[in-house]
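Hi F.,

I've been meaning to write this up properly since the lab meeting, where we talked about keeping a consistent format for the predictions we share between groups. The idea is simple: the sequence comes first, exactly as it goes in, then the structure tokens exactly as they come out, then a line or two of notes. No screenshots and no reformatting. I'm using this chain as the first example so we have something concrete to point to.
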Amino acid sequence: MNARIQILAAAVLFSFGGLGIKLCSFGPWQVGGLRCAIAGLTILLFLPESRRMWTWKIVIVGIAYAATLVLFVWANKTTTAANTIFIQSSAPLWILILSPLLLGEPILRRDVLTLLVMGLGLVLFFMAPEKTTVLSPDIVKGNWLALASGFCFALEIMGLRYLRDGGSAAALVCGNTIAFLACLPLLIVGAPGTPRGFMTGSFRDWAVLVFLGVVQIALAYVFYTRGLRHLRAARASLICLVEPVLVPLWVWLAFRVEKPGPLAVLGGALILGAAAYQSTVRDPHRRQVAGSGKGKDS
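Output, unedited:
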């Protein structure tokens, strides 16, 4: 399969995360834990390179990845799917800010424009949040959770920068395992506001969870890693911008709610535009980050 098609297929599969999370009636801890358990087992089955021993670097990256996964689910259960994915897509902003400290890479003059535009895009999401719905009961809280997910996603990307020879696949399994174990107590008994345990779920709940774990995370990741073997990370990052465009579309088609407001649309456009600009600008002093387009789950 053509590398561009594989990356596009991965982006489309990733984009069903918001819809799947909202379709499942389980609470965020249950969805987050069970989805990660299914995804981790599937990746172990289909990616032999993921079965390597964990090093301390893999565990650290796994922790960042686990936080990204759980916060992404929690945000989707709290705010709109559009806000969640657009705000999380601001990860490059945090990478630029943290690079001098964690990677020893200075902020370049042209990076300042990216920082300003992404910062403005984020501010717009918090200026006039949309009206709450059954699917998005607390817009402001969910927006902050999405922001935290984007920050953890940035840490994950920077961690993946130093993992080679299958280390990224092992970190993915590690992260899914950590996320499952962290969610396990509330997964069993049910969190406040979602008092039922996971054994009471309907057939649809379990079907959605299997889809999220096997297809939306594991299969998408297989497509993405294989496509990256023959495509530059910058080009892959641009193709993956299809995901945040599709996420709110699937939710709106399914529920006819959560239509993004004008400020959210403008904020999302600024964030994605800045991310696209950052992906197309080449810097000979910086190595490409293979996971900069995607390396999560979302």
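Notes:
The radius of gyration is 18 Å.
Residues 286-293 have pLDDT under 50 and may be disordered.

If this format works for you, I'll send the rest the same way.

G.
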